[in-house]
Amino acid sequence: MTTTRFAPSPTGRLHLGHAFSALFAQQAARALGGRFLLRLEDIDRARCRPEFADAILEDLAWLGVRWDGPVRRQSEHLDDYRAALDRLAAAGLLYPCFCTRKDIQDEIARAGHAPHGPDGPLYPGTCRGLPRAEAERRIAGGAPYALRLDVARARARVSGDLAFVDRDAGRIDADPLRFGDVVLARKEVPTSYHLAVTVDDALQEITLVTRGADLLPATHVQRLLQALLDLPVPDYHHHRLLTDAAGQRLAKRADSASLATLRAQGADPAALRADLGF
Ligand code: GLU
Question: Is 187 part of the annotated catalytic residue set?
Answer without folding.
Answer: no
